Amino acid sequence: MSQTPKQSAERPVPTSADVARLAGVSRATVSYVLNNTSAVRISDPTRRRVREAAEELGYVPHAAARSLRAGHTRMVLLPTAHVPVGPLYSRFFNELQWALRRLDYTVVQYGSLGLDGDGAARAWAELRPVAVVSLGEVALTPHGVGVLKRSGAKAVIMLGPQRVEGAHSLVMDQREIGDRAVAHLLQRGRRAIGVVMPQEPGLELFSEPRLEGARRAGAGAGARIEPLPLSYDEESAAALAARWRGLGLDAVYAYNDEYAMLLMRALQDARIDVPAETAVIGADDLLLGRLLRPRLSTVQIDMVTGQRLAELVDRVVRDPGAEPERHDLMGARAVLRESS
Amino acid sequence: MSQTPKQSAERPVPTSADVARLAGVSRATVSYVLNNTSAVRISDPTRRRVREAAEELGYVPHAAARSLRAGHTRMVLLPTAHVPVGPLYSRFFNELQWALRRLDYTVVQYGSLGLDGDGAARAWAELRPVAVVSLGEVALTPHGVGVLKRSGAKAVIMLGPQRVEGAHSLVMDQREIGDRAVAHLLQRGRRAIGVVMPQEPGLELFSEPRLEGARRAGAGAGARIEPLPLSYDEESAAALAARWRGLGLDAVYAYNDEYAMLLMRALQDARIDVPAETAVIGADDLLLGRLLRPRLSTVQIDMVTGQRLAELVDRVVRDPGAEPERHDLMGARAVLRESS
DNA sequence: TTGAAAGCGGTACCAT
DNA sequence: ATGGTACCGCTTTCAA
């Protein structure tokens, strides 16, 4: 036991048949004992022998074999491309994992970086998950939804900026955020508004609709809306700040709090007064945004709770026949602090 | 096709036998065609028929059945408890995922929230992954390593604060970080040093060794080291700042940049001059730390690249017999900005 | 109370 | 060039 098991690669993995042999019973009995099958009475001595044999061999059941036989899994697949950053997101994610586990699902995040919509759906379908919950980073097509359902997925739930045919959709309309931000700036008397567009890949799904929402809000008031590409580094921010006065803007909605903090600092370093000369607003309501001076105004976003989403998953799994629902669950409101 | 498939739950999932029947060939032929088996010649017309049949039925192979037959998987399991926050970590994570996919592994994150070391190892072993890479959030015991290896895992790699018997260990000695931070403060002439201890759960694995490193560095110079519990909210920071002068400290190492930013702001609001009265240093070298004034000094941490880790995984999988290696791969160095 | 055996969905050997 | 079939590990009915 204390010896280095360098031959472990050679030794075959113990199966229930090995346990049965060692305990002197049949494989059926092993299964009954280890699964506590209530429909069958097994004598206590036998139970003990089986348990000891399993322990001694270090037997661990083979999940694939089990679910193959069962014809279904309890796997909930969460496809991820980029691990999303931000405390809002990660709190949601942890909640969801925890809640699903409590409902006896196995939560598996499947890295789908570099797969297109249909290829990804195929790869997911091969795993025969009982449910797929897409957080919107990987585009899900109606065809992809069909593939998943035909492969036995009871629930396909899309959490993201847009609704997908055939899937239950939790629509987080990102346009709301841009809308609220710009509406807030308009209300503060601004009329020439920049909208920061992050250059980092993978954010377009969020930044584009936010810009659209900003445009919508601006159009109603005859305001000017100006997209501003920005990379998440100090040089890019400084460059933008250097040509700021030439842009003729009196306000900026900076995608989220991180970009807002970055840009606000660059503006201040370029001697542009915030908020007097230029108002700044972010989004996400990060704690860190309150640490700068002036305190950063922001758009607070209501996120669905992991608990609620887990309940939806479970409900749809139990009753897959129901029509795909569409919930609009995003609420967003501007929070005035000091930067706008 | 355009009709709502509300009966989809009823329709059985198509198997390769269904494809064979529709194409008028045997299951073997289906397998050959769809896997492009080179050892076998199949006529082009047959190939086409099989492909069309598969397409028409929406056939997707069953990964569990395949790996059951094959006797092994290409799954690399990444257990996660809390999704870690921070750009450093998420960049590493994305890199690792990408690099492993390029090496033809399937990357699966398995949520292990609320499982203890051995229970978690068992749950992982059921999936029969070819490799397990623990990022240190879920404690891995020597016994757990044994379970995994006996279940067929070729590589068990532990990336974390401490080495684990039997596993390849990439030791990121967190003590280094506390050590460097305090050494830096000593060098700046400070002698009474607070060490922020986050109260958020799940961080002890990092905060405790960092404190230990701080103590070690302080002991050599006869400095005073004072642990300071702090929650990640403004109230907690304000409360700590309010009693700051009573603590008699002239410097603080604040766990990481986020806590450092929070505390520094609270100190400033309490009219404690940074760095004159109290020096502040964080860790992680976040971009946001440079946005505060004074700019936050920090400890920069070398993280192993995802690429390198993926290569290690692949190497160990190919040659599982090799003795577990132990790499000390953490480099850390203090970066003087303005807050210390 | 326990055992024998079928079968889940693939793959690959051996025939034909 | 293609088909028949044994087998991977486990669960579950049916018999004994």
Structural overview:
The structure is a homodimer of 340-residue chains. By secondary structure, chain A is α/β, with parallel strands linked by helices. Chain A has three domains: 16-61, 434 Repressor (Amino-terminal Domain); 71-172 and 304-330, Response regulator (Rossmann fold, 3-Layer(aba) Sandwich), CATH 3.40.50; 175-302, Response regulator (Rossmann fold). Helices cover 42% and strands 17% of the residues of chain A. Chain A contains 13 helices and twelve strands. Chain A has a six-stranded parallel β-sheet with strand order 2-1-3-4-5-11. In chain A, helix 9 links the parallel strand 6 (192-198) and strand 7 (224-230). In chain A, helix 1 packs across helix 3 and helix 6 runs parallel beside helix 7. Chain A starts with 15 loop residues before the first helix and ends in a 5-residue tail after the last strand. Residues 1-9 of chain A have low confidence and may be disordered. Chains A and B meet through helix 4, helix 5, strand 2, helix 6 and helix 7 of A and helix 4, helix 5, strand 2, helix 6 and helix 7 of B. Strand 2 (106-111) of chain A pairs antiparallel with strand 2 (106-111) of chain B. Chain A binds a DNA duplex (16 and 16 nucleotides) through residues 15-17, 25-32, 35, 37, 39-43, 46, 61-62, 64-71.
Question: In terms of topology, how is this protein built?
Answer:
Two copies of one chain form a homodimer.
Chain A: H1 16-23, H2 27-34, H3 44-57, H4 63-70, E1 75-80, H5 87-102, E2 106-111, H6 117-126, E3 131-134, H7 142-150, E4 155-160, E5 168-171, H8 175-187, E6 192-198, H9 204-220, E7 224-230, H10 234-242, H11 244-247, E8 251-253, H12 257-269, E9 279-281, E10 298-301, H13 306-318, E11 326-328, E12 332-335
Parallel strand pairs in A: 1-2, 1-3, 3-4, 4-5, 5-11, 6-7, 6-8, 8-9
Antiparallel strand pairs in A: 10-12
Helix pairs in contact in A: 1-2, 1-3, 5-13, 6-7, 8-9, 10-12
The first copy, chain A, binds a DNA duplex (16 and 16 nucleotides) through residues 15-17, 25-32, 35, 37, 39-43, 46, 61-62, 64-71.
